[in-house]
Amino acid sequence: MVSRGASSAGGVRGGPGERRGREVRGGPAETVEKRGETVIRVLLADDQTLVRAAFAMLVESAPDMEVVGQAGTGREAVELARSERADLVVMDIRMPDLDGIEATRLIAADEDLAGVKVLVLTTYDTDEHIVEALRAGASGFLVKDTRPAELLDGIRTVAAGEALLSPGPTSRLIARFLRGPAAGPPVAGPDCLSEREREVLTLVARGLNNTETAEALGLSPLTAKTHVSRIMGKLGARDRAQLVIVAYESGLVTPGST
């Protein structure tokens, strides 16, 4: 059993590359085995100590996850993301020193952290912050009162490269705030896509995963996944969340469209 020390934010964390049972060193997004399963290295960023502690207990209870760091500010989150080589950061928006949006932007802009995903925790009274977080590079968001099992599923979803964006009201909420100027590096528009790729992008923007997209278009899941990968390459998008932003900002998908 590998011992852990106290983090600078008052939590516990392992050193770079530390794992239960054995030590493995590697870059971001590298996974290892824990009890025979794939491990997701999670960094928790929230300015409330009790909230972080509760999330840490929940994450550590999952056989396929471990907490590698805890941060009380956005700046600490960026520093720990670099030093602990986390796969995913669970990021609060409202934090002192540097808020979660700016911290997300710094992580997304760092080439050394290209494999690090950000899952934002927020509340429905900060709708515009959700969109800014997605523009900054977050791969999805959850509300803080979500059920424990949903938070763990959300971590798995984002770590696997999917965007945690539900269809229906959530997509319309996002679209409402995409009328303002975009923040962060520009992403190419959908004009460079083929007709099929535009169809796939439309379904991705409405919250469908690869399997659902494949069923809707009569494709195999592998073909749908290939289309999504090619679309991200053509648009220079970091992940599926950015594809949603492109689809709405370009007018390819509009609020309430079916």
TrEMBL record:
Query: Out of the domains of life, which is the source?
Result: Bacteria
Low complexity bias locations: 1-10
Tell whether Membrane is among the UniProt keywords.
no
InterPro entries from the UniProt entry: CheY-like_superfamily, NreC/VraR/RcsB-like_REC, Sig_transdc_resp-reg_C-effctor, Sig_transdc_resp-reg_receiver, Tscrpt_reg_LuxR_C, WalR-like
Task: List, for all copies, the residue spans of the domain called HTH luxR-type.
Answer: 186-251
Instruction: Cite the GO molecular-function annotations of the record.
Output: DNA binding
Disordered: annotated span = 1-31
Matching SMART domains: HTH_LUXR (SM00421), REC (SM00448)
What are the BP-aspect GO terms? Answer: phosphorelay signal transduction system; regulation of DNA-templated transcription
Q: Where is the composition biased (Basic and acidic residues)?
A: 16-31
Q: Which residues form the Response regulatory domain?
A: 41-159
Q: Which residues carry this modification: 4-aspartylphosphate?
A: D92
User: What protein does this entry describe?
Assistant: Two-component system response regulator
